[in-house]
Amino acid sequence: MLRHALARLRPAHRARTPEQARPGRMRLALPGSMSVSLGCDAVGVPARHGFRLMSHLPRTGCVFADADRWWWIVPAGSDLELAWPEQVTYARDADVPGGRPRLIHSPDAPTPYTPPIPLFLMVCQVTGVAPRWSSAGEPSVVPAP
Question: pTM for the whole thing?
Answer without folding.
Answer: 0.76
